[in-house]
Design a protein that fits this description.
CATH topology of chain A: Pnp Oxidase, Chain A
Number of helices of chain A: 5
Order of helices and strands of chain A: EHHEEEEEHEHHEEEEEEE
Distance between the termini of chain A: 42 Å
Number of strands of chain A: 14
Largest sheet of chain A: 7 strands, antiparallel
Radius of gyration of chain A: 19 Å
Helix content of chain A: 10-25%
Oligomer: homodimer
CATH superfamily of chain A: Electron Transport, Fmn-binding Protein, Chain A
Chain lengths: ~220, ~220
């Protein structure tokens, strides 16, 4: 099965790499990542928008979603705004906006909103306290629930409850699966590589005593 | 930008959904996910292999990687084996093995190894205590570091240090970026949908005072 010549790095090799080289390499190892824009505002209604590539499913009952934040990086306004207001939005990124989404990672002064700087549109829905990204096709309004300190490297796992979700009606399947590929959601790898996807298959629930088969998508009409 | 008619679910709507429907829906919301096979063995050398779709980059210095485990699900052998031996492997999944990878999620009796049941090959390297998946192109040997209890829904964030990494030499770029798409790594969405990828672009480091451009891949010869 191995078609390439294989190379090996030990922990010592990894620690000996130049810092940015190591960051790029190790960020590639966690596979394709969820990438999304997180929208917040502070108590003075100053908006902030930042790209995160560390979204993670926490649980469905209740519906909880998490992301990893680095206290001392560009996402510091996101974290402080969430602590200040208790609310934020998570917005999927599609092919039409991935360059603008990446640009939100630049270090803008606090009084400049990344919405304005990147020409993305702040959208307020149903009185929700944080701004959604109008150009995103899957948008969630999140209520902060728990902040967990990861002592090993001083990062923070932020967990929130999904209070609102907006999605394209024609992407919902009859078993609850939301076809995010049809909704044009993209993925990323490493620190700066963006990818669209092509479905191989949905598979049926695995059981020990039977072979797998391909599951139908079954969109709701 | 909105080409589809939009639909809305509130938190109350989500909580009112049938359990499996909600699980399928909410698992779709976290975007495309890292999916990998985690290989372990217990102190009696009984091997275990399980698919996880919750891999997460924790940090590059030192190189740490995490995943979310549900204590009462099929991954329970993985977690108990990690606690018993302190070591595990994380193996990327490619198109040739995604059905076998999915099949590891079936509930096999403890005395049956998922390696045997799914016809994947346990590979031992450099005396590492846990088995790698021979058919995987990017393989990591991990040393357990920290287990963090997520109280909100009784899940566990398991964090480990990357002690060994094996990868295809022709997928490494000259700035440390590892081209996992070239290495045929796939991604997943929801609970059962598998996808290959197509790169849109690598983008340059974002700065507030300049426009983005496309970064070159620059493979090492």
């Amino acid at each position: 099965m191995e078609t390439h010549s294989q190379r090996y790095f030990s922990f010592v090799d990894l620690m000996g790499l130049e810092q940015r080289y190591r960051a790029s390499f190790v960020n590639s190892l966690s596979g394709f990542k969820s990438v999304a824009l997180i929208g917040t505002s502070n108590s003075s209604k100053q908006t902030n928008l930042a790209i995160f590539n560390s979204l993670i499913h926490i649980g469905a009952n209740p519906p909880y979603i998490g992301f990893i934040s680095r206290p001392d990086s560009v996402d510091r306004h996101t974290l402080s705004n969430i602590m200040e207001t208790g609310y934020y939005t998570i917005n999927h990124i599609n092919e039409a906006i991935f360059k603008q989404a990446h640009q939100t990672s630049a270090r803008y002064p606090r009084d400049i909103s990344e919405f304005d700087a990147t020409h993305l549109t702040a959208d307020y829905k149903l009185g929700f306290k944080a701004p959604f990204v109008k150009e995103s096709f899957i948008q969630m309004g999140i209520q902060f629930k728990e902040r967990i300190h990861i002592t090993t490297n001083n990062t923070v796992l932020v967990i929130g409850q999904i209070n609102q979700v907006y999605f394209p009606n024609d992407c919902l399947c009859n078993d609850g699966f939301l076809d995010i590929e049809k909704a044009k959601t993209i993925t990323c790898s490493g620190l700066d590589s963006y990818h669209k996807t092509e479905r191989l298959a949905r598979l049926t629930y695995a059981k020990a005593d039977r072979d797998l088969s391909i599951a139908k998508l079954g969109y709701i009409e």
